Amino acid sequence: MSNPTLVADVVALARAAKAAARIMAKAPVAQRRTALVAIADEIVARRDEILAANARDLDAAKAAGMAPAMQDRLKLDGGRVQGLANAVRAVSQAPDLVGRLERAESLPSGLELTRMRIPLGVIAMIYEARPGVTTDAAALCLWSGNACLLRGGSEAFHSNAALGAAVAAGLAAAGLPATAVQIVPFTDREAIAELVKLDELVDLVIPRGGEGLIRFVAERARVPVIKHYKGVCHIFIHAAADLDMALNIIDNAKTQRPGVCNAVETVLIDRAIATRAVPALLNRLAARVELRTDDEFRAIAAHAGHPAAAQLRLADEADWHAEYLDLVLAVRIVDGLDGAIAHIEQYASDHTESIITADAAVAERFVREVQSSTVMVNASTRFADGGELGLGAEIGISTTKIHAYGPMGAEGLTTTKFVVRGNGQVRS
Description:
By secondary structure, the chain is α/β, with parallel strands linked by helices. The chain has two domains: about 5-230 and about 400-420, Aldehyde Dehydrogenase, Chain A, domain 1; about 235-385, Aldehyde Dehydrogenase, Chain A, domain 2 (3-Layer(aba) Sandwich), CATH 3.40.309.10. α2 runs antiparallel to α5 (about 80-90), α2 crosses α7 (about 155-175) and α5 (about 80-90) packs parallel to α6 (about 130-145). The strands form four sheets. Strands 10-9-11-8-7-12-13 form a seven-stranded parallel β-sheet, sandwiched between helices. A four-stranded parallel β-sheet has the order 5-4-3-6, with helices on both faces. The model has no long low-confidence stretch (mean pLDDT about 95). About 45% of the residues lie in helices and about 20% in strands.
């Protein structure tokens, strides 16, 4: 049974956001830019408050036994706080989207047709222990003329509140309503269940986090949902790969920040080079990363007399589906490009896949046939990020093909309406 007080409070937040969205849709670009610059300035000015709030969250996470890789996702330091401010400032320098005219054409009737880009309205963002999402989402929603409701995970409650205060101060400095960005103050999932029912007040829900969170939202929502699903990212070492390049890329993609969604989770090795690649991969990673491999990989390692062979764990079916978010890597030997594509088609989460090869024709076929939201050639999966791909920041990486797919920036938070201009035409 729903808590009537909680329901009323959630509805009140959504109504306030709806009213703010009408103001944001009409706010001139200069005012929106002023707001973002002011928010960036407030983040920097409040650095000590933000770090103190984050320290409270980290202390609680450590006491609760949160995995180190997840603690890294939660942690803020001086450099990361500055990075949050820089990302907001970068969004403020992007081209304006609101009101942009696209695809102009003259129709046989004499009518002039264009599409005008407009905001979606109210965006509900539901995410887990990544406080940086708070400011990225706020900046992107404001720049695209939307209002937003941000419901972060309980693990980052104090961090999100401190960042939300910086956003509110920046909005006030620009003369825009603080209700354009609201931090949902309720940590229980009943609040989420109520929020995603409000299809007359909320225009889009974006869940970003673990599989359980996304399923919880998708199963209860009446509001349209864009899923930012788990990142089961693959790297395929093709027979024509530069092996040193492949090892550098895999090392970066797995170990730089293992707790993020664009970290590689499965490496596929072309059988044609397996006898060289297996020992090389073990030499590079075995001391730092737990490898879960198929029988063939283990047999090659044992035949080569590699000292790590005895410690290898045999992968099971669940490992090919796993988003570890940790220093764990699944590895499988496959029968060339066809085997790699078949594995990806069966197990990928539509996030990011990369091929390492010097064969341009093979690379082109991989790019054409793999249908994930980001496909790379000779590059780390860690580049599947809005900031790295020129979006300034991202609200997440959509694995839902309808509307937006892949790293989702401000443009993904808009749609287009038809604008028709005539000189008296009537339809016969």
